[in-house]
């Protein structure tokens, strides 16, 4: 079975929002080995919606749409589907009760054309939407050419659509697939993308299950190891030896695996596993290092305190950075980064202190200390590990890159200790 | 002129990445009043790429593609375009020099099939790509049915594609449009979405230029005011009176306008305009409030210091929160939030202190203090302004919502002072 995802919404065509629905559905279908061949987006235009369904069914077995289930005359995905399958629209009383209840819950007046949301192509499986007025539906049947096609119509808002995919659509579709696909991400640091690819080229070329493929990710080198089998457990069995060989080739200090591919997750896991407490001292990243670590549930056991010492006064008063250090080397220097990391660990009484200080731009750069120059440092076990980074890009990209490097320096300090 | 955006990339169909390219291009085309009727995504499959171009040109005057300009046999967007227009592929020496120079800059070996990247449909305008090996191109001509169509082929990586759109494609396309579209976002706080809509329903229904439309944004009520005219200046002239009337209806404390729609931008602007210094004290948001403020260029003039006091010890030692307060009311309480805000302002010597303390989950909730409960407080001018929030959703959504509210509380404290 192969699929097309059809997202309906003028706000997508105007570029007001990014199409996270298409990504979410694609990812979930990939996990049960249903191939998505096309994604498409069309506005709230009845004619173009009808044509988009025709185009979709002409090239895919399954079309999953999002949006177009509202109460207005422009909301016509159900009508388009019924027309495609030459099915009647029939009234569903329990969906009407659902609409009424939802409107009263949100204390909104029931619009005049409210009954539209209770009509579905005859023969549909109706999916109850606990987070919005619009129930969803699945229709499977023969089209005018005698081909068996499946149409699934979902609401547009992600907080309504995502639970329906997880709880209704994927369980339904599993009958058409007897395989699962499972992947993990190997993050490689300290090695450039092409050098890393070269080191494992033979593996990339000769592996078929799991496959190894470079994974697009700004500023990071990530390989995705993906296996296909009857169960997730069998996938993991296939992945394990390949993973071990990859880490062996790159070296433990240069490569690690996470399901998410996020360095903060790996660093947080290591801190918790080893029961190591940490404090952060940030200048240019301004809380981003702490915020990313704190996104990890349960981190409060080891994350004690963070200091965002943006001004020189704050660096001196809060972290005990020496005035002479700031005067002699400047706030953006390895020496200041070291005193900040040490100062954070000392002030918070933690095992580890990590610091960042740099020029995030767009202004404030000099010839000697240009925009993008950042020093980071980890203090752990009486030792300092400092690094100089030259990042390019916008203020946000520079801050993101610096916080990624700082989090990774903590990881590497723990793993190579 | 109407357009279709065609993004080529298997990683999109797998849901590995979200399609920011389609959003970026759509937004830029909307600004010059070129309507996008469809967006589509297809994998790196030569047959399906060819068909996608045919489908695109059958329903749009202009097809802009991203991806498929690489050196491999799967990279065939240029061939597909040439076939559609029945044009030859011709070699372009300066593009070949560009490829060679780029490969040497990234210290990569030039692949054997390197010359592919120097071939273009004969008659193309070649666009120099300063950030990657693949030059882009524009082809305008008659198709086999005698219709004039335009194809624009861009590379896939956003950091290569975006500058080409801004510097080459939009200036080129302006000849086909004599209008610009310009919009601003009005953010409404303290008023629910449907109540807000009702308050301005007559304006929404009767305005044609500018239009006023609700704008989808998680947890925020935003209206987009959009005008169409010959110049941006004329658009702004059209928007001004409508904006004033909207702010008048909602009240200055409940509504504000920014181009980005981001509360941190408005708050940072107000701090800088009024030369007010600020310090942050965060528990559950863990640096997110500070990090969002610090994303604003030039904020170092007023942002002095941030404290991420995750543990009770940190709250007492660093912010001088009283032990009795923590024991009597708990860390997640209005009283603690107040002492944190005051403590931050006092420790950093700033005009304003802002604090957050709450239960971000997924664990740690109790019946009395459930996951999602957050207290925020602003200390300014000797006065405290505290707020209790009950957020729902994941750990990240709760933290995001709490930091948005904290930033907005600072805005409102300044604007209503």
What's the layout of helices and strands?
The structure is a homodimer of 417-residue chains.
Chain A: E1 2-8, H1 10-13, H2 20-31, E2 35-42, H3 46-59, E3 62-66, H4 77-85, E4 89-91, H5 93-105, E5 119-121, E6 125-127, E7 136-142, E8 148-154, H6 158-173, E9 180-188, H7 193-199, H8 201-206, E10 211-215, E11 221-229, H9 232-250, E12 255-258, H10 263-273, E13 278-282, H11 288-294, E14 303-309, H12 312-319, H13 323-329, H14 334-348, E15 352-358, E16 373-380, E17 383-390, H15 395-415
Parallel strand pairs in A: 1-2, 1-3, 3-8, 13-14, 13-15
Antiparallel strand pairs in A: 4-5, 6-7, 7-8, 9-11, 9-12, 10-11, 15-16, 16-17
Helix pairs in contact in A: 2-6, 3-4, 10-15, 11-15
Notes on the protein architecture:
Chain A has 417 residues and is an alpha/beta fold. The first copy, chain A, folds into three domains: 2-176, Molybdenum Cofactor Biosythetic Enzyme, Chain A (3-Layer(aba) Sandwich), CATH 3.40.980; 180-258, Alpha-Beta Plaits (2-Layer Sandwich), CATH 3.30.70; 263-415, Maf protein, CATH 3.90.950.20. Chain A is built from 15 helices and 17 strands. In chain A, the strands form four sheets. In chain A, strands 2-1-3-8-7-6 form a six-stranded mixed sheet, sandwiched between helices. A five-stranded mixed sheet of chain A has the order 14-13-15-16-17, with helices on both faces. In chain A, strands 10-11-9-12 form a four-stranded antiparallel sheet. In chain A, β10 and β11 (221-229) form a beta hairpin. In chain A, α2 (20-31) runs parallel beside α6 (158-173) and α3 (46-59) packs across α4 (77-85). Chain A is elongated, with a radius of gyration of 27 Å. Chain A starts with a strand and ends with a helix. The mean pLDDT of chain A is 92. Chains A and B meet through α1, α2, β2, α3 and α11 of A and α1, α2, β2, α3 and α11 of B. β2 of chain A pairs antiparallel with β2 (35-42) of chain B, so a sheet runs across the interface.
């Amino acid at each position: 079975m192969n699929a097309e995802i059809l997202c309906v919404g003028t706000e997508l065509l105007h570029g007001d929002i990014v199409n996270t629905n298409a990504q979410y559905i694609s990812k979930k279908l990939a996990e049960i080995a249903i191939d998505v061949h096309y994604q498409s987006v069309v506005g709230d235009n009845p004619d173009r919606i009808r044509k988009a369904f025709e185009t979709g069914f002409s090239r895919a077995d399954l079309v999953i749409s999002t949006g177009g289930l509202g109460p207005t005359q422009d909301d016509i995905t159900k009508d388009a589907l019924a027309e495609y399958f030459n099915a009647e629209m029939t009234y569903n009383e329990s969906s009407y009760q659902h609409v009424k209840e939802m409107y009263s819950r949100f204390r909104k007046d029931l619009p005049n054309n409210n009954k539209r949301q209770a009509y579905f192509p005859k023969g549909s499986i109706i999916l109850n939407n606990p987070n919005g007025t619009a129930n969803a539906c699945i229709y499977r049947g023969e089209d005018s050419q005698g081909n068996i096609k499946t149409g699934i119509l979902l609401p547009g808002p992600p907080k309504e659509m995502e639970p329906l995919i997880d709880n209704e659509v994927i369980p339904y579709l599993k009958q058409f697939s007897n395989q699962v696909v499972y992947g993990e991400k190997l993050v490689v640091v300290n090695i450039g993308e092409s050098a890393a690819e070269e080191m494992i080229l033979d593996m990339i070329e000769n592996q078929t299950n799991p496959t190894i493929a470079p994974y697009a990710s700004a500023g990071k080198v990530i390989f995705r190891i993906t296996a296909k089998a009857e169960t997730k457990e069998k996938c993991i069995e296939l992945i394990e030896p390949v993973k071990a060989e990859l880490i062996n080739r790159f070296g433990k200090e240069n490569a690690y695996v996470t399901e998410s591919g996020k360095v903060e997750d790996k660093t947080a896991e290591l801190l918790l596993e080893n029961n190591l407490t940490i404090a952060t001292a940030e200048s240019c990243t301004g809380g981003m290092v702490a915020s990313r670590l704190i996104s990890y549930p349960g981190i409060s056991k080891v994350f004690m305190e963070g200091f965002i010492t943006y001004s020189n006064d704050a660096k001196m008063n809060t972290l005990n950075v020496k005035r002479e250090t700031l005067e002699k080397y400047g706030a953006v220097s390895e020496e200041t980064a070291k005193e900040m990391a040490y100062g954070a660990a000392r002030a918070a009484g933690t095992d580890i202190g990590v610091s960042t200080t740099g020029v995030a731009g767009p202004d404030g750069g000099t010839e000697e200390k240009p925009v993008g120059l950042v020093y980071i440092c980890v203090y752990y076990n009486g030792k300092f590990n400092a690094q100089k980074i030259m990042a390019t890009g916008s203020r946000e990209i520079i801050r993101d890159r610096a916080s990624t490097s700082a989090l990774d320096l903590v990881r590497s300090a723990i793993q190579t200790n």
